[in-house]
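Late entry, written up from scratch paper. The run itself happened at the end of the previous shift, but nothing got recorded in the book at the time, so transcribing now.
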Amino acid sequence: MQLHIIPGYIQNIYLVQDAAGLLLLDGCSRADVSTVCDFISKKLALPLTALKLVVVTHMHPDHAGGAHLLRRKTGASIACHPKACLWYSGGWVVQRILLMLA
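Output as recorded:
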């Protein structure tokens, strides 16, 4: 197993590499998505599909902001707290609107 630390826009990005593929600890900010993709394809010489899992620890933009876009670009799964799943499915907006109308 190898840990890659990538300097991000406002934080460090932690990418774990092993024989099964890549795991990104936190989804980075949206500004860092191209940095992560370039690192995977250029520095590691791997296809973007090598990213298998993005683990989101909390919903701050620098930790979760790029997760959904990375999922679209790589096919990676997102692991997060069950309440955050509403955010990634689009249900967060629907739920908030329903609460405001109640």
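The two ends are 50 Å apart (CA to CA).
(Scratch paper discarded after transcription.)
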